[in-house]
Design brief:
- The protein is an alpha/beta fold.
- It folds into two domains: 2-171 and 346-375, Rossmann fold (3-Layer(aba) Sandwich), CATH 3.40.50.2000; 187-338, Rossmann fold (3-Layer(aba) Sandwich), CATH 3.40.50.2000.
- It is built from 16 helices and 13 strands.
- The protein has a seven-stranded parallel beta sheet, sandwiched between helices. It has a six-stranded parallel beta sheet with strand order 10-9-8-11-12-13.
- The chain is globular and about 60 Å long.
- The chain starts with a strand and ends with a helix.
- The structure holds uridine-5'-diphosphate.
């Protein structure tokens, strides 16, 4: 069974690496890694760290082009890649342009699609944009939906996806943490200080929100005398410029990153809390018992909030500073969050996915996705 795995961004690499490993360890699968190079530098850094040498690397899109032009570029190249390697199944993950292009190019060739991390929704096409739209498209076209939680599976049912096409597996990002974190120790603390980590990179936070959050970090530092703030900066040059302009040289604030994945986990392990708009980080932090304050107005991971491992705090300067100061000065609250149970699975989602695929193909099910979707 030739299985094309399509990935082009850091989170896709992190979350599909264990799926590739589980398929390679199961009899009957020949995984082929197709790298779309959507996030050229971060994608490469993560592939190298996780020891993945792509079978096929596409020519990176011109980052100056429009979203539509970049999308078309990736679609065209994926179509050629599928022609060349003739996969029996295409696996995509999450909600990036690579995810949607990977699914659409496969659908056009009547190749079945399996979607890992299926069913996440904010039900607001504007936020996050374009990710909410991309995952809705993939939700319509995929033949198999691997939902990380029951909550995500319920979203798919609500959108008319057939019950027997949806499987609750856990999140494969937790598998990556399990596989990587075994040999990882927490980064040593600066004497006498508690550490919080901050990441902020999503498109909806590129404008004023970034300045508000950076201002809030100064307020948190001023109100909590024993806190050290480590800002893990993204590769995006415009974001970096503003982060450095406002935080560089500030006492008890450090700017690092982008970090290699194991170094990121080691830093995360050393923190008492994390402030982040990242999707993957919301799933990883609870593994280490690190409470997450989500720097967004809405999240497609509400189960984390319901479970008590995360709180949605928005991006206003006052709101972020107040929520962080409360958490840092109320140890009972922090303890409650850090002990809450993660809803994102036990770290064996990829093995479940490999088992399900084995059974599906033994039953000869996913042969022509168009007929199947019509039948549904
Ligand atoms: N990550 C990393 N180095 C960093 C920051 C994040 O390896 O400096 C990892 C992190 O552990 C997680 C993933 O990148 O697995 C999250 O990616 P990102 O925040 O870029 O995207 P999102 O999850 O929001 O789609």
């Amino acid at each position: 069974m030739r299985v094309a795995i399509v990935a082009g961004t850091r989170p896709e690499v992190v979350k599909l690496a264990p799926v590739r490993a589980a398929l390679a360890a199961s009899a009957g699968f020949d995984p082929i890694w197709i790298s779309t190079e959507q996030q050229a530098a971060l994608n490469r850094q993560t592939l190298t760290t996780l020891g993945i040498d792509p079978d096929l690397s596409l020519v990176p899109p011109d980052n100056l082009g429009s979203l539509g032009a970049r999308f078309a570029h990736v679609m065209g190249q994926l179509d050629e890649a599928y022609e060349a390697c003739a996969p029996d199944l295409v696996i995509v993950q999450g909600d990036t342009s690579s995810t949607a292009a990977g699914a659409m190019a496969a659908f056009a060739r009547r190749i079945p699609v399996a979607h890992v991390e299926a069913g996440l929704r904010t039900f607001d096409l504007a936020s996050p944009f374009p990710e909410e739209g991309w995952r809705c498209v993939v939700g319509q076209l995929a033949d198999l939906h691997f939902a990380p939680t029951g909550f995500a599976a319920a979203n798919l049912h609500r959108q008319g996806v057939r019950d027997d096409r949806v499987f609750v597996t856990g999140n494969t990002g937790v598998d990556s943490v399990r596989l990587t974190a075994a040999g990882i120790t927490a980064e040593p603390l600066t004497a006498g200080l508690r550490r919080i980590m901050v990441t902020l990179h999503r498109r909806e936070n590129w404008g004023e929100a970034l300045d508000h959050v950076l201002g809030a970090l100064l307020d948190i530092r001023d109100h909590v005398p024993d806190v050290e703030i480590v800002f893990v900066a993204h590769a995006n040059p415009a974001l970096r410029q503003r982060v450095f302009a406002m935080l560089e040289g500030q006492p008890r604030i450090r700017i690092v990153g982008p970090l290699e994945y194991p170094d990121f986990l080691s830093l995360l392990k050393s923190c008492v809390a994390i402030l982040s708009d990242s999707g993957g980080v919301q799933e990883e932090a609870p593994v280490f018992g690190v409470p997450v304050l989500i720097l967004r107005e809405s999240t497609e991971r509400m189960e984390a909030v319901t479970a008590g491992v995360a709180r949605l705090v928005g991006v206003s300067r006052h709101g972020v500073a107040a929520a962080a100061c409360l958490l840092l000065t109320n140890e009972d609250e922090r303890h409650k969050m850090s002990k809450a149970l993660s809803p994102f699975g036990d770290g064996y989602a990829s093995e479940r996915i490999a088992d399900i695929l084995t059974r599906q193909y033994a039953q000869g099910l996913a042969v022509d996705p168009v007929e199947r979707l019509n039948a549904g």
